[in-house]
């Protein structure tokens, strides 16, 4: 407390403890000598609540990681990045501050809990929490092409070397897979499109990653009924590969068709080189499984997004941007994460050009 506040407290204590005071002699006060202590406690408690609410960073990194998934330095970085887009125009004392807004959104992303529970934890109303999360999500969307870049932020040769060190598989610049993100039941007109093979509603989200588990491309537009290979066939990423814009290969599982720029396993390996090729590809491709597992462990909201497909797509994008920021800044990784189970889709017929490239790599590198 400042000096003026302390002076007011002392004056109030003095007025309660003056000799001959009628309040001192009142039979209705049980412990009049404790009134001063109670006044001080109430004043300190008001100050402490105000400080914690206005400055959520006034805690240890351990506390912040547990609740928000970022360190104080990481949250301050996000504040500087997003402040121009989310800062309240009003200067009223009860306006939500930028650090508060960032922490509200991070608590929702990391916990996946209901909005009223986030509000209770942050001492704010559910409506305030909802508006705040929306503003942060929209602000993060501005940076989607800054933080999600294919084949990555590092030089292509560095990415190839990083993948090659895993199992000796050559020329790889990305690992690809899809993952289902549960969503609320859409409107009747489109509900059937979002039913996946497990009879639940979801988005089927395509991502690629580099050797450091940075997410390098994202396509979160498609309903759960779409197959992985169908999504890739319609993707901008495939179009750019077809146009020859990248010098390197993707690696994927057997749900994808083997193409000249996308390597998948030999469907029926018979020789040792073919088995060795499949083993090396599987170990290299594991990076995307790890990336998806870390992403969902970091942001538990992705285990069940109780929003519309459009809102879900935007929240997924925000979480991927935050994942990449956390990876670049070397924020603490989740202590535990589970690799996704194999989700077997129908195998896809390989392209002749893909089989040719696969056979050539098998002969040159695994014989």
The total of helices stands at 14
Structural class based on helices, strands and sheet pairing: alpha/beta
Q: What shape does the CA trace take?
A: globular
Order of helices and strands: HHHHHHHHHEEEHHEEHHH
Supply Rg: 28 Å
Question: Going across the major beta sheet, what is the strand order?
Answer: 3-2-1-4-5
Number of domains: 2
State the helicity in percent bands: 40-55%
Whole-Å distance between the termini? 76 Å
Cofactor: a divalent metal cation
Organism: Carassius auratus
Subcellular location: Cytoplasm; Nucleus
Domain DDE Tnp4: 176-324
What do these coordinates show?
The longest helix is centred in the last third of the chain and has 27 residues, at about 270-300. This protein has two domains: about 60-145, no CATH class; about 150-365, no CATH class. A hairpin with a 5-residue loop joins β2 (about 200-210) and β3. The protein is α/β, with parallel strands linked by helices and about 375 residues long. The protein has a five-stranded mixed β-sheet, with helices on both faces. About 50% of the residues lie in helices and about 10% in strands. Residues about 10-35 and about 45-50 have low confidence and may be disordered.
List keywords for this structure.
367 residues; alpha/beta; 2 domains; 5-stranded mixed beta sheet; 51% helix; globular
């Amino acid at each position: 407390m400042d000096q003026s506040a302390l002076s007011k407290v002392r004056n109030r204590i003095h007025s309660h403890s003056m000799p001959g005071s009628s309040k001192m002699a009142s039979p209705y006060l049980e412990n009049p000598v404790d009134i001063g202590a109670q006044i001080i406690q109430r004043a300190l408690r008001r100050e402490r609540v105000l400080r914690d609410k206005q400055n959520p960073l006034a805690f240890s990194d351990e506390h912040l990681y547990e609740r928000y998934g970022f360190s104080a330095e990481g949250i301050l970085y996000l504040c500087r990045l997003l402040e121009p887009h989310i800062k309240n125009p009003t200067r009223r004392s009860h306006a939500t501050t930028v650090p508060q807004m960032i922490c509200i959104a991070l608590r929702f992303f990391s916990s996946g809990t209901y909005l009223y529970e986030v509000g209770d934890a942050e001492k704010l109303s559910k409506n305030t929490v909802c508006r705040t999360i929306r503003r942060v999500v929209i602000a993060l969307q501005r940076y989607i092409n800054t933080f999600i870049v294919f084949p990555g932020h590092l030089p292509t040769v560095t990415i190839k070397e990083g993948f090659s060190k895993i199992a000796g598989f050559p020329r790889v610049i990305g690992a690809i897979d899809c993952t289902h993100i549960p969503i609320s039941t859409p409107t009747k007109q489109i509900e059937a499109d979002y039913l996946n093979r497990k009879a639940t509603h979801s988005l089927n989200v395509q991502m690629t990653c580099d050797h450091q588990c940075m997410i390098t491309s994202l396509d979160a537009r498609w309903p759960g009924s779409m197959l992985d290979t169908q999504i890739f066939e319609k993707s901008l990423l495939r179009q750019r590969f077809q146009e020859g814009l990248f010098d390197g290969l993707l690696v994927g599982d057997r749900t994808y068709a083997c193409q000249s720029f996308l390597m998948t396993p030999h469907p029926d390996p018979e020789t040792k080189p073919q088995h060795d090729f499949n083993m090396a590809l599987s170990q290299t491709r594991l990076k995307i499984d790890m990336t998806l597992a870390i992403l969902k462990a970091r942001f538990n909201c992705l285990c069940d997004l109780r929003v519309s497909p459009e809102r879900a797509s935007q929240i997924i994008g925000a979480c991927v941007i935050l994942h990449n920021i956390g990876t670049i800044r070397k924020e603490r990784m989740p202590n535990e994460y589970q690799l996704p189970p194999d989700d077997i889709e129908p195998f896809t017929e390989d392209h002749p050009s893909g089989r040719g490239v696969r056979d050539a790599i098998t002969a040159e590198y695994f014989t």
